[in-house]
Amino acid sequence: MPLVLEKYVILYIYFVNEMAKKIQDSDFLYSFLLPYVNWHTRRSYRRFEVHGKDHLPKEGAMVFGVNHSNTLMDALVLLSSDNIKKVFIARGDIFKNPAVAKILHFLRILPIFRIRNGVAAVRQNDDSLNKAVDVLHDHVDLYLFPEGTHRTKHSLMRMGKGLFHIALDANKQFGDKSPVYIIPTAIEYGDYFRYRSTAMINFGEPINVTDFLKNTTEENEAITINQLKDLLSNEISKLFTYIPDDEDYDAIWEIVKMKNEKRAGGLYQKMLRNRATVAKVLKFKENNPEGAKELFERVMDFAKERVRQRISVTSTAKKYPLLNFLWKLTLLLVGLPYFVVSAVVNFPIWLVTAIIRGQLKDPAFGNTVSYGVEFVLFPIIFVVGTVLMFCNLPWTWALGGTVLLYFSYMLFVDYCELFRRWLSDVRWTFKKKLRKQYLSLNLNKLF
Questions:
Q1: What total of structural domains would you count in the chain?
Q2: What is the pTM (predicted TM-score) of this model?
Q3: Are 302 and 381 contained in the same domain?
């Protein structure tokens, strides 16, 4: 065979194989990049916890229904929860650009379209749903956000039908051989907008779709889907700080933060305390609606004044604000030299992040931007800095400098946050009138 023809045959075989490749199939480049992505996600949070893994079935097809509150970070947090292969489904409008669509496919993300995307786009859902069922058939975990869009609140929106169609179709195809499960999953963040906050994933008790269908006499699929919707929504609501009351959401969340912001313990324990406080507040509202209305108004008046005076809710939780003020000042002074060097070295990351975040229409994308900019720029800064140090310093000094450089951006961000909270403590210490207003709320006795 002539050499030129042989090359064309090889290229043809390569492209045929690529076209036939399933989204869940192993990919060398994906596997190579995944550890760095997961490492980078974990270092984007001061604390990162995963709970409820013991609830996951040992065998069967699993489709995970997750609350959606923090844009792309939700998928990245879930991806880094373990090293098990995952495929995601996202809203179809982000696939409009062909180049972006290829990247998303490489990232193992399938599109699902809604009516607002147009009738022609919705017709493409059959292909995505078939691929999703095939993912489950191959026992690869499938993750969906059934709310369809993100909202930075501790609540749940109405769920779409896509997840449930996939689960029912999968059960029709192979439920007699392998059970199909819907796994209620919740993500809880310490803050939706501040970089390097906290993140917790909580897996709930699985919903066995196969058994559910065996034990029901309902033949109408639409009714079955609504039943599964209600069941999943109810189960997810048990896994994070859930506030069902949109009308008084802000006041309730403010009370929860003031009660539990600085109490010791892990993220899971904090979530349980938050839920207990929410339950007490809702019971108080039910038993004393007029009293609750008056309290909520006073809480929001205090919250508005607190925000206006740039006082963090963490400061209000301090029993001895002056001691916290002095302790943080000591840490700030000790860490100042390292911070100054870190600030200079990482200035490009800070600048690019600040410019992009300043142009965002939806601040919920702020953490995604912070993540993405550091993801791209920090390896460049780290490699260049390491090379320069080893070329110009004794190797022992260069090695020590490399270690300090590795932690530099995390320290820079955390130092800025500590400084912000220190200033807040200073303001809170000398705002006697505001502290008196806080004490008059009497939250500790009420809840």
A1: 3
A2: 0.89
A3: no
